Amino acid sequence: MAEPNFYDSVYEVARLIPKGRVTSYGAIAAYLGTKGSSRMVGYAMQAAGRVQPPVPAHRVVNRQGLLTAKFHFGGNLMQTLLENEGVKVVDDQVQDFKNVFWDPSIELAL
Questions:
Q1: Which 3 state secondary structure label does DSSP give 99?
Q2: Whole-angstrom distance, CA of residue 81 vs CA of residue 63
Q3: Tens digit of pLDDT for each residue in 26-36?
Q4: DSSP E strands: which ranges in the chain?
Q5: What whole-number distance in Å separates Cα of residue 99 and Cα of residue 20?
Q6: Model confidence at 110, in pLDDT bands (50, 70, 90)?
Q7: Pairing of strands 89-90, 93-94
Q8: HSE on the CB side for 101, CA within 13 Å?
């Protein structure tokens, strides 16, 4: 069986983000051992809408908790999806970011 490509690895991590929590592009990149590739994680999230099983791309934000990918979802869908999971968002900024942040390098440590 072929080794998963970078996007598949990103999706595997993103699917593990619990409801009501968020992570960042950089945190996923660091977990995958490719610390400088947060932009590539963003590209993977941009393409995630066509992937099965679904990827909760709305739970991936920038390192300050900003919904920088919001326009890819159309309107306020990204914010609505997060708020439906209990994440408060004001002016495209995740509130209480430190407490809702999910770091895969800590949460998925062996």
A1: helix
A2: 19
A3: 999 999 999 99
A4: 23-24, 60-61, 89-90, 93-94
A5: 10
A6: low
A7: antiparallel
A8: 20
